[in-house]
Amino acid sequence: MRRRQAEAPAIDVRDLTVRFDDVCALDSVSLSVDPGEFVTVVGPSGCGKTTLLRSVAGLQSPTTGEVRVGGDDPESAQDAGDLGVVFQSHTLFPWKTALGNVTFLRTLAGRAPERGRARERLVAAGLGEVIDASPRELSGGQRQRVAIVRAMHLGASTLLMDEPFGELDELTRYDMAASVLDSWRDSDRTVLFVTHSVPEAVLLGDRVIVMADSPGRIVDSVSVSLARPREQATMDTTAFTEQVADIRQILRQHRTTQAGR
Amino acid sequence: MNSVRPPEWGYSIAALAGAVVLWAGFVSLFDVPAYLLPHPFEVGRRLFGNPGLYADAALATTVTVLVGGATGTLAGFLLGVAVGEVPTLWRAFSPYLIAARVLPVVAIAPLLLIYFGTGFVTGIGFVALMVLFPMAVSTAAGFRQTPQAALDLAASVDAPRHRVLLAIRLPYAVPDVIGGLRQSATLAVVGAVLAEWFVADSGLGYLILVAAENVRPDVLLAALSVVFLVGFSLYSAVSLLGARLRRAGG
Q: For chain A, which end, N or C, has fewer CB atoms within 10 Å of the first or last residue's CB respectively?
């Protein structure tokens, strides 16, 4: 594992602008995430939140600006296996078992598969029954759980999640959020988590980054004051509801400025 | 034994038997002369009266099919991988690969005759050409449809290109490659029979040609049924192989 400098932010985005032809997906976005921090990103469709995550993952090159992960460029972080990415869908390889999928990412990264440890992680994630099942035998929630375990198993210190629960039903998605919180609490991982669900963002994040579209930009950064550990019951508290309402208000403000179009 | 359902192949055997009965009934009922349509028994008598002739012809054709088919599918596979893997090659060559499928290989046969003469090699080349383009297009299509998320995942750990090709793109392409192989199995038999019309002095195609010239529909139909048998066996073998490949799955 790479050593991080104690002072360096885990993720550091400076004046990032990404243009596709004449469309400005991100306009001068700056964001700094501390090591071990859980940061969530919310915003309407097309606000560039996925582009932001892909830029941090090194899957999208900046038009201008700079992205640093652990003090290095994203390509070095990729090379060091220090970025664990979880996508929205179609992420498990259909010809591999749950276990095979978990170890496969390490193999791709040129590391030892560590099957024993992978098994333990699957059991800990409540997937003990389906270790040798193929992806088509798993439910949507189980599949994403496997994808998350796979990202954890890579051993990366930074996890990037792009609407990982976007295709799941309401109940499952909060179960999943709770289990992500469980495994995050026991690690010192930094998480950047993109979602379009405000309650999900508040439940998970230390901080919620609010984005607006046309052009994609960060309009606010809201610290979540809710105590940890949080669980699904946290969502029934007044503090939670108020925090969600605040962020919705911010989102609405920035939408009304575009309403005249 | 807890099921009374006949096996899958039972239905096709029944259909074949039904067709033969209809054929026999039609010939007997309308007194069709044998030089137009012989009775199925006549065809059977031809076939089993001189099995060596048909077996030799089948063997000659099968060798052409296997050698030409293997050459053509291998070349097509490699071409497909190259074109599927390198976007620039795809942009440059895909229109011609696809257009080549509408080109009747019969139209190219005279060229092969000029280049290779009337020997074994021409037959092989003919069969190989027949399967080359469909195989290349299927393979390329398979390699190009790897889900973007899978490629992104590989990129997120900076996986080397050869590992992505072998461990991700190839397994995702397997169903299309198998489809290409199955298509090739039948095309190769068609190609071999056609080639024998032009260049051979043996084989089932040659037998059909001679039978036609001598107005012997009984021999022709006997040879055709052997062609069917060869083609069907090959297709089944490839399908079985494909099912195994798919199970092994990378």
A: C
Residues of A contacting chain B (CB within 8 angstroms): 54, 57-59, 75, 78-79, 81, 83-85, 87-91, 93-96, 104-105, 107-110, 154, 160
CA A111 to chain centre: 23
ipTM > 0.90, yes or no? no
**Domains in chain B, ordered, with CATH?**
52-249 (1.10.3720.10)
| Inter-CA distances, B209 with A100, B26, B198, B216, B217, Å | 56, 26, 10, 10, 11
Q: What is the pLDDT of residue A256?
A: 55
**Tokens 């490839």, residue?**
B238
Interface A-B: count of C-beta contacts within 8 A: 62
Whether residue B157 and residue A57 make contact (CB cut-off 8 A), yes or no, is: no
Instruction: Quote the minimal CA–CA distance from A137 to chain B in Å.
Output: 15
Which residue is closest to B165 within chain A, CA to CA? A108
Q: What is the pTM of this model?
A: 0.82
A76, A95, A161: which to substitute to probe chain B, counting the most B Cβ within 10 Å? A95
Percent of chain B with pLDDT strictly greater than 70: 97
φ/ψ (deg, to 5) at A2:
-75, 145
Name the more confident of A225 and A89. Answer: A225
Q: Tens digits of per-residue pLDDT, B138-161? A: 999 999 999 999 999 999 999 999
Report yes or no: A39 and A33 within 8 Å, Cβ to Cβ: yes
Task: Using CB atoms, pick whichever of B152, B154, B158 lies closest to residue A75.
Answer: B158
